[in-house]
Amino acid sequence: MKLKLSISLLLLFVSGILFAQNTRLERQKLLQEKKKSFITEKLALTPAESEKFWPLYESFEKKNKELKLQFRKLNKPVNLDSLGSKEASELLAKKAETEMAILQNRHQFLNQIKTTLSPQRALKMLEIEKDFKKSLLKQLNKNQMKRLDNQKLED
Fold first, then answer.
1. 74, 75, 76, 77 alpha-carbon torsion, rounded to 10°
2. Within this chain, do residues 59 and 96 fall inside the same structural domain, yes or no?
3. What's the CA gap between 16 and 29, in Å, rounded?
4. pLDDT, tens only, 90-107
5. CA distance 34 to 72
6. How far is CA 80 from CA 33, 84, 85, 153, in A?
7. Position 48 in a domain
8. Considering the entire predicted model, what is its pTM?
9. How many domains does the chain have?
């Protein structure tokens, strides 16, 4: 009886984790689709331009995500007092290398899209990216405020 209960609880726990991961992946995918739609519309990309632009953008985003994850790992809290001079120098060098890799990735991407889009439209794409982030943050703040208002009503 205890074994059945333990197995049932384990299955419930694992299914909850899988559901949460699935939901997160779905939200990330939906967000990427919204971003793609937003940029395509605001930049007025033709189908031919989209065909050339999006593989470059997606490749840039993928590498950028990997580099930023690597950077976050390097920025985990460290007991600085326990670090020796050599370890501190190595950590600084790794952080600087990762920051440079992020900048080089962006530089490479911007050079690539200049051939797909005009330099003016490449600049416009950068502004559109900022606009998308602003609208996303605005929406997140709006949703947070709604939740806070709902909590106040429940209390």
1. 130
2. yes
3. 20
4. 989 999 999 999 999 999
5. 26
6. 42, 8, 10, 46
7. no
8. 0.73
9. 3
